[in-house]
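Box S2. Input/output pair 1.
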Amino acid sequence: MTQAIATEASVVKVRVWRGKEQGEYQAYEVPRQPSQTVLDIVTYIQREIDPSLSYRFACRVGVCGSCAMVVNGQARWTCRTHVDKVAQDGEIEIAPLRNLPVVKDLVTDMAPFFDKWAKAKGQFQGDTTRHDEFARVEPESKQRQAVDLAIECIGCGVCYSSCDVVSWRPDYLGPAALNRAWTLMNDVRDT
């Protein structure tokens, strides 16, 4: 009996979305490891169990946001989500980001997200040339402090996936696009 409990505790039961818009969850069992992230789980499944599983990642350290997925109903970066925090019962459900078309399995088409970013005029429009001095915004300045948190957005789509308004109103630009537009409206260097 102790062996059965130990074996069960050393395995994570994972349900992963497979398919496109229409699909189903597929169950896997993955060995539990210390300091294991949800991205580690997905990578293990793809490398050791089912090489046909599609997902996206790049940096693995919470800088790029490419690995964003829905874990137990909440959109999050899988590289920064530790299994111990989300699988206390030993089970995890992983799905693609919501509000975006599913390409395959855990991969979504980010084009609608970035199209709305462009509609919000989320591009910096400076008027300096390479011959001009660099425009500086001092970190301690009021202008910088006003946009400090907003410039931390890395364009991962987690907020977009979590936004109910995007679900109800497909024409709504979404929080990331509006955040970017607000940031640029408050950037003293933008023209």
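Box S3. Input/output pair 2.
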Amino acid sequence: VLVGGSAAVFYVGHRHSSDHDHTLADLADQFDVVLEALESQDGWVTNRTVAHKLILGELGDIEAGVRQLRRTSPLEVAEFELDNGQRFRVPTPDEILRIKAYLIVARNKTRDYLDVAALSAWMGEERAARVLSRLDVFYEDQHGGGDGFASQAAVQLADPRPSDPSNTKDLQHYKRLDHQWRDWNQVRAVCADVANLMIALGGES
């Protein structure tokens, strides 16, 4: 399943992303088989591995990675057919939004806030808030009983402070961003709106 920035860009088209990150539910068990299969491909170069968890490399000029799925619940995916008849799977827009919000909590990078803002504007902020308000249901195995991810995501979305702040000051030249997202204040505003809606939904429940 294709995940990460390229999956978000597939739907929204708000920035450039040429890397291909994929998840497998059983990489931990099939690590050696997957690594051997990758290294048998013409043009594949392995750059880094973490046993049973991660394989990073390049296929031609494209950076690629295979990761162990970090949660026990399966990803919600949609399947698409290319012009050549090949089929590929990507997470649904709701699922990509959940993944990106999880990554905001886990690694707190500028690109994750950009993707959450663009996805939220594309699908509608109210829908985005409803999706993210149920984040703990999907990541319950990651945080003692499932409490904490949604509330922490709301806190960080309300006042985005990424760990790579220099990127927020040069969005004009960042990953060929759509003009709408080259103003960090606009990104912050959308993220904050979603956070406030999440908090309101929490109050309703």
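Caption for Box S3: DSSP finds eight helices and seven strands in the chain. The chain has a mean pLDDT of 86.
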